[in-house]
């Protein structure tokens, strides 16, 4: 849950997987190149990074006002801020 609500609908499963990967590393920085490689292993690096940017944009839209919990510094690592998030797998 993000700020007490589930995120909005995502356009693809990859967006949901992206959220899951960030949630499982809650509060820790996650390298973009690693994420792109995990989600689009069959794609050339440049295409995978492009797809990651599109999925991030979609994810931010699905999170709505809680999009600020998805933190990044330019092209640096991504991080899901644990303040305002509850992840059942982490709680378990």
Number of helices: 4
Helix content, binned percent:
40-55%
* Largest sheet data: 2 strands, antiparallel
Mean pLDDT: 88
What is the N-to-C succession of helices and strands? HHHEEH
Distance between the termini: 14 Å
The coarse silhouette is: globular
Structural class: mainly alpha
Task: Report the radius of gyration as a whole number of Å.
Answer: 12 Å
Please mark out the parts with pLDDT under 50 across 5 or more consecutive residues, or reply none: none
Largest sheet, spatial ordering of strands: 1-2
Give the strand content.
5-15%
Number of strands: 2
Can you describe this structure?
This protein is mainly alpha-helical. Helix content is 47%, strand content 7%. The chain is built from four helices and two strands. It has helices at residues 13-24, 32-39, 45-63, 88-91, and strands at 70-72, 78-80. The chain has a two-stranded antiparallel sheet with strand order 1-2. The longest helix is centred in the middle third of the chain and has 19 residues, at 45-63. The protein is globular, with a radius of gyration of 12 Å. The relative contact order is 0.23. The model has no long low-confidence stretch (mean pLDDT 88).
């Amino acid at each position: 849950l993000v700020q007490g609500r589930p995120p909005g609908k995502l356009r693809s499963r990859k967006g949901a997987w992206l959220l899951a990967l960030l949630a499982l590393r809650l509060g820790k920085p996650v390298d973009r190149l690693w994420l792109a490689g995990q989600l689009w292993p069959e794609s050339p690096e440049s295409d995978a990074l492009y797809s990651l940017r599109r999925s991030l944009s979609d994810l931010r839209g699905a999170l709505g006002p809680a999009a600020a919990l998805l933190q990044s510094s330019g092209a640096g690592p991504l991080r899901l801020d644990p303040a305002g998030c509850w992840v059942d797998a982490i709680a378990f």
